[in-house]
Write a structure and sequence with these properties.
The chain is mainly alpha-helical. The protein has helices spanning 18-32, 34-42, 47-74.
Length: 87
């Protein structure tokens, strides 16, 4: 399973507006990471650069997960007050 699965996407062109359809397709491909993968594999990436990029992505994922957990805790409405009586 080292290859990507084929994912079918269809973008409709409405009222002969091809530019809008191209923008939508670029937005979809950008959000799913296809453009980043294309840009990465266009040229040779040195092993040190690849290690730095992978380590950065791992650290960013950990940071994002931690911040998401903290934000969801702060935004909870029914959490107990940590310091009762203090304002």
């Amino acid at each position: 399973m080292k290859h990507l699965k084929f994912i079918s996407r269809t973008v409709l062109v409405r009222n002969e507006n091809v530019d809008e359809a191209c923008r939508m397709l670029n937005r979809i491909m950008g959000s799913e990471g296809f453009l980043d993968q294309y840009r990465r594999t266009r040229f040779y990436e040195k092993p040190t650069q690849m290690r730095r990029r992978v380590n950065y992505e791992k650290c960013k994922a950990i940071y994002d997960e931690d911040m998401k957990r903290k934000i969801s805790f702060v935004l909870r409405t029914n959490r107990p007050e940590p310091f009762p009586g203090c304002y």
